[in-house]
Amino acid sequence: ISLHYFLELNTMKFIICLSLTLAFASAFVVPEVKDGLGGRISNGDTAKPDQFPYQVGLQFYSGTENNGWCGGSIISNNWILTAAHCTLGSTSVTVKLGSNIRTNPRVTRTAQQKDIIAHPGFTLQNLEHDLAVIKIDRIEYADDIQRVRLPTKASLYSDLVGEKIIVAGWGLNAGGTQPVNLQYAELTVISNAVCQYSFNQYIDPTKLCVSTRGGAESTCEGDSGGALVLASSHVQVGIVSFGSWQGCTAPAPDVSTRVSSYLDWIKETTGVSG
C-alpha cells in the first residue's frame, strides 16, 4: 500500500487498514471494507427518479474532518439502517435524502455521535454483526422519501439462494469517472457454502452472499451500508458489508449482513419491525 494512500486517510481509516492487513497476515483472506469517497456500483445502471426512495447517502465526520461516505436505508421516519464499520471514529453524520443526485439532496438531517448506534457485538476482524442504526429528526414521506420494508421473522428460515436482489449506491463507475446519478445493479444470492471458498474463511448464517457474475457487476467502496432488496418485493434482506481484498471487479462474491438475523436488535433499539 503506497505512502500516498495512507497520507490521504484519517487516523481511523489507517487503523482499519492496519487491522485488516494484520488479520490477513495471520489468518485468512481479508475482506475489503466498502467505504470511502471513491465508492461505486461497478458496471451498474442509472436509477430512475424515485426508483429507490428509501436510499440515503451518509457523509460521516470526525470533528470537522471528513470520515467517509456510505449508503443507508430509511426504516422509519426517524431511523436509518447502515453498516457498523461505516460509523467507526465518527462524531456526526449528514444524512442526504430525497434525490438520486448525490450532491443535491432535497432533504438533509444531521445526527450526532449519541444517535449513531452500532450493534454492540460488532467486531472489525471478520466484520461480525456489521450493522448500525442512526436516529434522525422526523422526516415526511413523499414520492422520493419512503421507508423500506424489513423482512419478517418467518424469512429467517429461508436462505434466499437463487433470489434476485437489487443494490444501489453512488460513486465512480468501472471506467473511473464519477456519475451524477444513483447507480444500481441486480445480483443473485448464492449459498454461504459456495461463498466461503472465495474468502478462505467461514461465512456464518448472519451473512448473505451474492454473485458478482465474475466481477462483472458488484458493490464497491462507498456502497457500504446500502440496502440489498429482493427484486420481487423490495423487502430489505441485506446491508452491504465487504468484498474481496483483490478489488471490486475481482471474480468473488459480495457479502452483506443478513437483516433477518437482527430483527430483534433492530426492534429493541428503534422500535421498528417489518
TrEMBL record:
It comes from the Eukaryota. Residues 41-271 form the Peptidase S1 domain. InterPro entries: Peptidase_S1, Peptidase_S1_PA, Peptidase_S1_PA_chymotrypsin, Peptidase_S1A, Trypsin_dom, TRYPSIN_HIS, TRYPSIN_SER. GO terms for molecular function: serine-type endopeptidase activity. SMART domains: Tryp_SPc. Residues 1-27 form the signal peptide. One of its GO terms (biological process) is proteolysis. Keywords: Disulfide bond, Hydrolase, Protease, Serine protease, Signal. PANTHER family: FI18310P1-RELATED, POLYSERASE-RELATED. Belongs to the peptidase S1 family. This is Serine proteases 1/2.
